[in-house]
Amino acid sequence: MNDLWDPAAIGVLRLPSGRLVRGRGLRRPLPDGPAPALGVYLLGKEPPAVPWEARWVRWPDFWLPSDRAAAAETLREAWERAATERVEVACGGGVGRTGTALACLAVLDGVPGDEAVAYVRAHYQARAVETPWQRRFVARFDGGSARPPA
């Protein structure tokens, strides 16, 4: 398990399954320690290149992903890979979009959608998931599964 994050490191969220995912803000310096194997970057414009594998989800600040199906696919990949690899999720500040994505990962990990925001706020960042529509997005997130309409 040398390929995983230090659970005590800043920004590392432990999901109920034990998977570790690092959330961070890209406007802050890169934290000390190992590099991620996969970075998921939630930005309105394409992020700068990084020396590790990366996915860009077009996601304007304070809003929702431009392509929700593609976002769900990327988040599912991040969740799957977090079982054995270092995965980080980041936006500009590391709070709203990052918190929303981490809450979606918690849903994939088995946390009920209506509890996922509270889970991430308790275990990652107290202000995570900043807007009512981001909270609603998490509550309705199903990871792209074919769920019948409500």
From TrEMBL:
Q: Could you tell me the superkingdom of the organism this chain comes from?
A: Bacteria
**Where do the Tyrosine specific protein phosphatases domain residues begin and end?**
66-121
Q: Keyword annotations for this protein?
A: Hydrolase
Keyword Isomerase attached: no
Has keyword Iron-sulfur? Answer: no
Protein name, per record: Protein phosphatase
Gene3D superfamilies cross-referenced by the UniProt entry: Protein tyrosine phosphatase superfamily
A GO MF term: phosphatase activity
Checking SUPFAM superfamilies in the record gives: (Phosphotyrosine protein) phosphatases II
